[in-house]
């Protein structure tokens, strides 16, 4: 009898619990909770890279219109504000380099997948990061601030639907040596904490691997970003100056700019102040890569590389016979120690004292201009 009563009691309790469970499952989710849940979901989209400013560190993506059957993952819900911004800007998106999740660059035309930031506050943070990374560059204009920001960008294969990380990865380094005459140097890689060690891996680089505004901004001790690509794992590619890392190493920067910094950078001290400019006449150009300038004060022929022509100058293009001003530096290290080269070259109006010299600059009347010509030509052979 007691067993029968116990069985009935157990059945009664179980039935009551099941009814409560069904009732809770049938209760609707409050509207505010559902709305907040949809706000947290970032839509995964597919698009094409329309442009990427490698040196400036940002670019733009145009979203591809795919049907739900082609890409079900791109149909996630987003906030009303975000969708309105997307429609208003015709499916265009802005992204900084940090959105590549460790990748260094993307190329125009590549297909990518990405998330869209649902929060305007995060957009402001990304814009702040972009300003800090590019404040040293004279940009032609700021990217549109109304565009939604793409993050977590990955390369995508539309045929297979598979994603993969953006490669090559971005590396940070410090210039250990730089020869202004040959246009070659060496970069030591920083560790994950941004510190430099004596046994750090080193990579060679040349002028063809640089993307800088003024080549004179590159010197021994400056910090850079770069990558290594397949084929040559010992060469640094697509090198850009990393001023944000340089600011974090302020004591080293102050040491470099102190007394005697010219020796640390590989330049010998000159009789004139560092900012003093000399004048001369372009005597010869070779293959559009380098040439010689006749120094107004002494008439000697000084070697220069076209990469040292100041790109900020509206008259950046120079030709034989042009009067130019420049900074003169002597190389104190390496195999070219003792020779001089011209930096920050700018075209200018002829100086009165140059009139007679310009008339005879091509006649070979000055024996000083021929002393080292053969050696200088061989520097880049």
Task: Give the strand line-up of the largest sheet.
Answer: 3-2-1-4-5-6
Counting copies of identical and different chains, the oligomeric state is single chain
Sheet with most strands: 6 strands, antiparallel
Helix content: 10-25%
Roughly what is the average pLDDT, rounded to an integer?
70
* CATH third-level topology of the largest domain: OB fold (Dihydrolipoamide Acetyltransferase, E2P)
Shape: elongated
Number of strands: 17
The gyration radius over C-alpha positions equals 31 Å
* Domains, number: 3
Structure explained in plain terms:
With 381 residues, the chain is of the alpha+beta class. The chain folds into 3 domains: 41-164, Beta Barrel (OB fold (Dihydrolipoamide Acetyltransferase, E2P)); 171-265, Nucleic acid-binding proteins (OB fold (Dihydrolipoamide Acetyltransferase, E2P), Beta Barrel); 278-378, OB fold (Dihydrolipoamide Acetyltransferase, E2P). Helix content is 23%, strand content 30%. It has helices spanning 2-26, 31-40, 80-88, 120-134, 243-248, 250-256, 261-264, 355-360, 373-378; strands at 44-53, 58-63, 92-96, 111-116, 150-157, 162-164, 171-179, 184-189, 202-206, 223-229, 232-241, 267-268, 278-286, 290-295, 301-305, 323-331, 340-347. Strands 3-2-1-4-5-6 form a 6-stranded antiparallel sheet. Strands 12, 13, 14, 15, 16 and 17 form a 6-stranded antiparallel sheet that branches. A 5-stranded antiparallel sheet has the order 9-8-7-10-11. The protein is elongated and about 70 Å long. Mean pLDDT is 70; it is low at 29-41, 69-79, 133-144, 255-274 and 354-381.
